[in-house]
Specification:
five-stranded mixed sheet; D-Maltodextrin-Binding Protein, domain 2; 14 strands; 18 helices; alpha+beta; 2 domains; single chain; 41% helix; 445 residues; globular
Amino acid sequence: MMAITGENHTRSRRGFLAGSAAVLASAVAAACATPVGDQGELPPKSKEPVQLQHTMSLGNNVADQQYFAAMQPRVAAALRPHTVNYDIQKSADIATKFLAQTAAGTPPDTIVVGVDWARDAFERGLLETINAYVGQTPALTMSKFLPSTQYYNQAVGKFFGVPGGASSIRGLTYNAEMFQAEGINPRREATWKWTWDDLVANVNKLTKRGPGGEIVITGLEVKTGFSIVDTICWFYANGAEFYAKDEKTVVFNSPKGQQAFQFYWDQVHKYQWAGGKGNLDTGEKAMTYAYSGKITSMAERAPQMKIEIMPFPKGPGGAGPATMAWTDPVALSREGKRKAEAWEFLKALRTLEMEDLQIQYLKVPGTFKAFYEQPAWKEMVKQIPALTGVQEMERVGRMRPVVKASDIDQAIGPVLNEAMKGATTPKAALAESERLANGILAGRQ
């Protein structure tokens, strides 16, 4: 998928702070200046044509390439006489290159910023405050975007990015016919009320084993290692939080958090659900983790399959089911030299027309509220009814960790993975992870 999907976040983005410290040392004067977007007046526009640079990622698949080909001429027409050079990078390499370019005094004008390092970049003075820009651009007023986008593009009342084009929502996708075959009600009004006890009972029904105990039909594709997205969804479902309210410490090592991580561990070691092969759309798995953007591709590969989506079921400590929703913002570089024109580019890039192109080529849900009233989306929902579940899940979506998230993930991932391997207890690993994470957050204050 293109960078607009917000789904490609990998470990190579981590350790962001070490690199950004070097950038700040080389650009301290600029970092101390008042951001243009904090001032009442915006920078003057160039009287001559300029070429902008936009950093993004782009998949090699046909859908991404077709969308990119359709998007470019529309942006070019809106931006004339200015032009754009699209700097295509691997998603995992964007942060590193952005730091290097900024240190060298040649940053891109605009950039798709990963949610796992966007807040750090802004707090380190690398992204422009855009409140004044937004204030003069009614089409990009933040109230026009989904609520779940608003956690990832601002800090202390200052906006540093426009929500990207696609909303990523994490949930569990399942084959409704496989549920029915085992006497399990696949309708949303039933599955959305599941508890962990319901999940255990139903996954055990769905899981089929061979003579030697090997899994031949997977009831639930479980994760055997730590994921800051997948693991924390179980925490949220049990009423646990990742950060304290002031985001200065983590609080995931609470009794509810310990219970959640134990359940995550139990899925592998106690219930032994791991080890199956195949895919949901081949009938070898009944239920799997999935992003919202993957539902349409699954449905296209197996149009005969009745696919559905559900949130993570409610744990004993939770008030209801949980999901996680996020969107990568598109930002102006603080050190960029063509900010007026760069904002014009963002205005051309982030429109309902572009989200209509998304549904045409990428088939992923957008981030404008009005997108869900567009004919193209309504037609897609007719073809794939499960997509209505995406809209419902977005409304209850919890936030993906963002404060020092890259560094925390890098620190606690190996510790929690040791527990998942059985090398230490879940409780001990969670306590050590809490210590490491709070040490990282203390360095931010």
